[in-house]
Write a sequence for this structure.
């Protein structure tokens, strides 16, 4: 178990399987999520629309022991939930600072939300949208997964890569391939360009971001499925 400076706990998939360090009422949702990540994200799918696993980054993350799970056993209307999620943002940055640059892209935190209604994805969608700008400005992505999430895949609009058995939020490092998930907001595009095109003058970056948000339709929201689904 990892404990951040904020006191927030993270568990590895092995610790979730073992269960000794986790409260019994949290175990079913955590184990269901860990099994889904292993059996869905790391394999191909007939409807994916391209070759390879649903998420090419999950297996390397698991192999490097950079794949972590947390459980936020609270209702989304709890006023302290956004602050707690920002705490996980800080914990991700804390852990990333200890890694080699080439490993940071594989650092993943799945925050399992067992109290969220599994039949209605909209409250989770709204929460993700509320938090996204803050994460993007910290060069992080936060994606929502839900049993009824309607967001389509990039390669097949009929595929639903953000379906998960348990509602959750995923935090990961922003990568260059995330542009499709950031193109509807000038703030998000400016953060992306600042991260991946630092040689472009600030005024030019802002103008490019403004033009892109006007001209390019967005295919989907951001997710931990590394902009490849």
């Amino acid at each position: 178990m990892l404990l951040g400076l904020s006191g927030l706990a993270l568990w590895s998939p092995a610790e979730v399987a073992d269960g000794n360090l986790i409260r019994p009422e949290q175990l079913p949702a955590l184990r269901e999520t860990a099994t889904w990540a292993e059996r869905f994200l790391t394999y191909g799918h007939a409807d994916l629309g391209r070759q390879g696993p649903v998420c090419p980054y999950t297996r390397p993350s698991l192999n490097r022991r950079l794949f972590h799970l947390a459980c936020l056993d609270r209702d989304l209307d709890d006023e302290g939930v956004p602050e707690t999620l920002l705490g996980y943002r800080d914990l991700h940055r804390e852990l990333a600072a200890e890694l080699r640059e080439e490993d940071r892209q594989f650092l993943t935190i799945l925050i399992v939300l067992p109290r969220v209604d599994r039949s209605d994805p909209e409250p989770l969608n709204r929460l993700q949208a509320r938090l996204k700008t803050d994460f993007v400005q910290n060069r992080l992505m936060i994606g929502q997964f839900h049993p009824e999430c309607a967001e389509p895949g990039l390669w097949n609009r009929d595929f639903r890569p953000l379906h998960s058995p348990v509602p959750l939020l995923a935090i990961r490092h922003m990568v260059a391939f995330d542009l499709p998930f950031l193109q509807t907001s000038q703030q998000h595009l400016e953060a992306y360009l600042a991260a991946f095109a630092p040689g472009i003058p600030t005024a030019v970056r802002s103008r490019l971001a403004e033009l892109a948000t006007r001209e390019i339709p967005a295919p989907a929201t951001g997710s931990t499925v590394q902009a490849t689904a």
Q: What stands out?
A: Helices lie at 13-18, 27-41, 58-63, 81-96, 122-136, 186-196, 202-215. Residues 218-224 have pLDDT under 50 and may be disordered. DSSP finds seven helices and six strands in the chain.
